[in-house]
From TrEMBL:
Name listed for the protein in its UniProt record: Chitooligosaccharide deacetylase
Domain NodB homology, residue spans: 42-264
PANTHER family, per database record: CHITOOLIGOSACCHARIDE DEACETYLASE, PTHR34216
Tagged with keyword Mitochondrion: no
Record flagged with keyword Hydrolase: yes
Function statement: Is involved in generating a small heat-stable compound (Nod), an acylated oligomer of N-acetylglucosamine, that stimulates mitosis in various plant protoplasts.
Pfam short name (any one): Polysacc_deac_1
Record GO terms (molecular function): hydrolase activity
Source taxon at top rank: Bacteria
Keywords: Hydrolase, Signal
UniProt record similarity statement: Belongs to the polysaccharide deacetylase family.
């Protein structure tokens, strides 16, 4: 489309407004409110989206040394494939992490952008991922979900929240007060947008003022992708969390504590 196509320009402007409205609606509606208890300990959750091999190779040893468990959001359709964040792990890695006590979360089967498909298709894809994860790890019923690309619509939010206790977005922030478990905030641990000083300041803020800090990244490698971090930044974040006395817990463990008795 070019400047001689004013209809196209209007359509694009309309689509932008539509996306804004979708996001605003998703933020305000279909909430799953849960207050953080008054005695909630300052907590950090480490989460990985897509689960590339480099995260397994370069983040897991540091987590193991710290005795820390993380949440790994898996799109079964990506397993064993190449991706913009590097090669994605094989199914065996998912089984191994689950056996070691880590949390395996849902991330749709085909890594769907919520804006790109109708809610029914999103729901069907979620069902496919739950079924595939259940075959991969018999008995597994994911309690945690992360929106691919951080994209959320009202329909996607309803579909995802119906299947899991929590849904994590990518809107930056520390979870405090009354949370919306169907759209949890999270802070990107990307070399491109995060510095060691800034993440240490956020960790210090949580240690002093309380709250739940969820960080997310993809690949963990020297010279990471725009959506990943270096082993140095990852290890500095982990070390700062330990030094500040934060509790390190999976998203699912925290959710189970906030909403005891809830099941997907
Ligand atoms: Zn993803």
């Amino acid at each position: 489309m070019d400047s001689r196509d004013p209809g196209g320009a209007f359509a694009r402007a309309g689509a932008r407004v539509g996306r804004f409205t979708e996001r605003a609606l998703a933020r305000r509606l279909s909430r799953r409110p849960a207050p953080l208890p008054a005695d909630f300990p300052p907590t950090i959750s480490f989460t990985f989206d897509d689960f590339p091999e480099s995260a397994y190779a370069n983040a897991l040893p540091a987590l193991d040394r710290a005795g820390a468990l993380a949440t790994w959001y898996v799109s079964c359709g990506l397993l064993g494939n190449s991706s913009p964040v590097g090669p994605i792990v094989s199914p065996e890695r998912v089984r191994a992490l689950h056996a070691a006590g880590h949390e395996i979360g849902d991330h749709t089967y085909n890594h769907l952008d919520a804006r790109a498909v109708p809610a029914e298709a999103y729901d069907g894809d979620l069902a496919a991922n739950h079924a595939a994860l259940g075959r991969l790890v018999p008995g597994l019923r994911p309690a945690s979900f992360a929106y691919p690309y951080g994209q959320v619509t009202l329909g996607a939010k309803r579909a995802a929240a119906a299947r899991t206790i929590t849904c994590r977005g990518t809107e930056s922030g520390i979870a405090r007060g009354t949370l919306d478990l169907a759209l949890l905030p999270a802070v990107a641990l990307y070399d491109l947008s995060m510095t060691r000083e800034r993440i240490e300041a956020l960790i210090g803020d949580v240690a002093r003022a309380g709250g739940w800090l969820i960080v997310y990244t993809h690949d963990v490698a020297p010279g990471p992708s725009p959506w990943g971090c270096s082993p140095d930044l990852f290890e500095a974040t982990l070390a700062a969390s330990l030094a500040a006395g934060l509790r390190i817990a999976t998203v699912g463990a925290v959710a189970a504590e906030i909403m005891p008795g809830e099941g997907p």
